[in-house]
Design brief:
Order of helices and strands of chain A: HEEEEEEEHHEHEHHHHHHH
CATH superfamily of chain B: P-loop containing nucleotide triphosphate hydrolases
Strand order of the largest sheet of chain A: 1-2-3-4
Strand order of the largest sheet of chain B: 6-7-8-3-9-10
CATH class of chain B: Alpha Beta
Distance between the termini of chain A: 71 Å
Number of strands of chain A: 9
Structural class of chain A: alpha/beta
Structural class of chain B: alpha/beta
CATH topology of chain B: Rossmann fold
Distance between the termini of chain B: 22 Å
Helix content of chain A: 40-55%
Radius of gyration of chain A: 28 Å
Number of strands of chain B: 10
Number of domains of chain A: 3
Order of helices and strands of chain B: EEEHEEHEHHHEHEHEE
Radius of gyration of chain B: 17 Å
Oligomer: heterodimer
CATH architecture of chain B: 3-Layer(aba) Sandwich
Strand content of chain A: 5-15%
Number of helices of chain B: 7
Number of domains of chain B: 1
Largest sheet of chain A: 4 strands, mixed
Helix content of chain B: 25-40%
């Protein structure tokens, strides 16, 4: 797939147009095959480039470019070692070798200009674009990682690129961790200052995040223990229901429902308590409080889901205990 | 199968797999006709409760089979046997076994809820049954607010909730004083007079002398069945 695309790119008359500070509202009318974009004030302000690739029809020397039908691709020079295609991510080394691929984050997938076909940019074109945009200035190179397992690999790549450019590699993942509710962190050219600090609002310290996680874990364990205790106490009730004509599945469903509901209520209460603790930080004058709130609500969904799951695990355990005892035996006690 | 037999016990043996195996019942066969008041008597540990649990489909025999109105339990899946218990059998236990978190009327309505009856209909019938057992004024009390005799009468009302074909009572007077025991027996006799088939496991002579059928067990074996008009 990559080789085909590389061949497809060969011989295209590329022109690099740069300039301006803002992304135009409408795509400029430019010759097909033109690589064009915006040079932003800082590299941290999401510069983007667009490439129209015509479709090649025919094979060998007789092949022609169909300029009417083609595909538009976008990429960001600031994260220039990534391109997106077919809703997947390609990560390049500076010499053009593809080293990883995976799903981009939802926000990237939702972009209107997301390409839908494969593309491969030759390394010399890549560096040509880069130097046109960045010149010879030292620039920061940051990772855009959203999965822990990507981070280490991404860091190695970022550091390699940074060395070549004379810049600094900074892990965006690490920065995110230090600012729990602020996922949109971008770097200034110095590579050392986050947007949060530049804007100035307070942000959560890591211990708050950890405290919330430990609280959740503790809450889950307590709930699980309580559930086991409660269901053990209700063995007799289950046996009575069997005597009255309940099936094992009806009783199992009751136990699962009860276990799930108890844990869910516990999870919601824990989440609300956590909210009380972090609300001042959340709404403490942050410029992008809406994004923070959305992220926080997203965490809530995870908390509630995990609570429910814990409740069910406890209920399944209790059912296992119940299932081993005959109702007759329980009723005789 | 006897013409009028409602409940048939066919060569039933029950062995509990404890250690080398404990034989609780051995080759017991009997057929109980519809509408009788039968008691199962014998010394402690002779297998009375085991026989009742097997008759009620709460447990499965190791060998042999039990038929209720011609339906062999061995031919039923666990779910279908549960349905038989729900519709055809009423249980009264020595320890009452009411659900402590439910009101008296809710305890009585529980088997009706399991049958899928609506709350209003179930509550109406439950209150009616409580009235029949003389507890109309105690319907909205929790079991812990009732005396032992009252709890057992609630249990009796619960056993009748789905109009079962047969009512099985395991030592129903075992935890009651003589006055409450007499009241409960009057109640059970009243059920019997109205056509209800009853099998009572007991060693209370006062209960035994009122029965039409006396089934004597000893060491897990059927010794004698006496019948009285």
């Amino acid at each position: 797939m990559v080789a085909r695309s590389q061949a497809q790119m060969a011989g295209l008359p590329f022109h690099l147009l740069t300039g301006g500070m803002e992304w135009p509202k409408e795509t400029p009318s430019l010759p097909p095959g033109t690589l064009w974009g915006v040079v932003p004030g800082t590299l941290g302000a999401e510069p983007r480039f667009s490439l129209f690739l015509p479709r090649r029809e025919g094979e060998g020397e007789g092949s022609v470019w169909n300029w009417e039908e083609g595909q538009r691709y976008s990429f960001w020079p600031a994260a220039v070692y990534q391109l997106f295609w077919d809703q997947e991510q390609l990560v390049f080394t500076p010499d053009g070798e593809v080293v990883t691929q995976g799903q981009p984050p939802q926000a990237v997938m939702a972009r209107a200009l997301l390409p839908t076909r494969d593309i491969w940019i030759p390394a010399d074109l890549f560096w040509k674009v880069w130097h046109e945009v960045a010149g010879d200035r030292p620039v920061p190179v940051y990772q855009w990682s959203w999965r822990v397992e990507d981070t280490l690999k991404g860091r190695v790549q970022a550091e390699a690129i940074a060395r070549q450019l004379g810049g600094t590699a900074v892990s965006l993942y690490d920065l995110r961790r230090s600012a729990t509710l602020r996922p949109d962190i971008l770097l200034t050219p110095s590579g050392l200052v986050t947007r949060i600090k530049a804007v100035g609002p307070p942000h959560l310290e890591p211990p708050s995040e950890n405290l919330a996680l430990y609280s959740l874990l503790l809450g889950g364990l307590i709930l699980g223990g309580q559930m086991i205790h409660l269901v053990a106490r209700r063995q007799k009730e289950g046996a009575i229901l069997v005597a009255l004509g309940s099936t094992w599945w009806e009783i199992a469903w009751l136990v699962l429902l009860e276990g799930g509901l108890y844990a869910l209520v516990g999870g919601i209460l824990g989440y609300l308590l956590m909210s009380l603790a972090i609300l001042p930080s959340l709404l403490g004058g942050q410029a992008d409080w809406w994004a923070s709130l959305r992220h926080y609500l997203g965490q809530g969904v995870v908390v509630v889901g995990v609570s429910w799951l814990l409740g069910w695990m406890a209920a399944f355990f209790a059912l296992g205990v119940l299932g081993r005892r005959s109702p007759v035996e329980v009723l005789k006690q | 199968m006897t013409e009028a037999a409602l409940l048939e016990v066919e060569n039933v043996t029950k062995v509990y797999m404890v250690g080398a195996g404990v034989t609780a019942l051995q080759k017991v066969s009997l057929a109980i006709p519809q509408g009788v008041l039968a008691v199962v008597t014998g010394p402690s540990g002779c297998g009375k409760s085991t026989l009742l649990h097997l008759m009620g489909g709460l447990d499965r025999p190791t060998f042999g089979d039990i038929r209720l109105a011609g339906t062999a339990y061995s031919s039923l899946s666990a779910a279908r046997l549960a349905r038989v218990r729900r519709q055809e059998i009423g249980f009264i236990f020595q320890q009452f076994h009411l659900v402590p978190e439910l009101l008296a009327w809710e305890n009585v309505a529980l088997p009706m809820f399991l049958m899928g009856k609506g709350r209003r209909e179930a509550e109406k019938r439950a209150r009616h049954l409580l009235q029949r057992v003389g507890l109309a004024g105690r319907a909205d009390h929790y079991p812990y607010e009732l005396s032992g005799g009252e709890q057992q009468r609630v249990a009796a009302a619960r056993a009748l909730a789905n109009e079962p074909r047969i009512l099985l009572a395991d030592e129903p007077t075992g935890n009651l004083d003589s006055q409450n025991a007499a009241q409960l027996l009057d109640l059970l006799e009243e059920f019997h007079r109205m056509g209800q088939t009853l099998v009572i496991a007991t060693h209370d002579p006062y209960v035994v002398e009122r029965a039409q059928w006396r089934i004597h067990l000893k060491d897990g074996q059927l010794r004698e069945v006496e019948t009285f008009p």
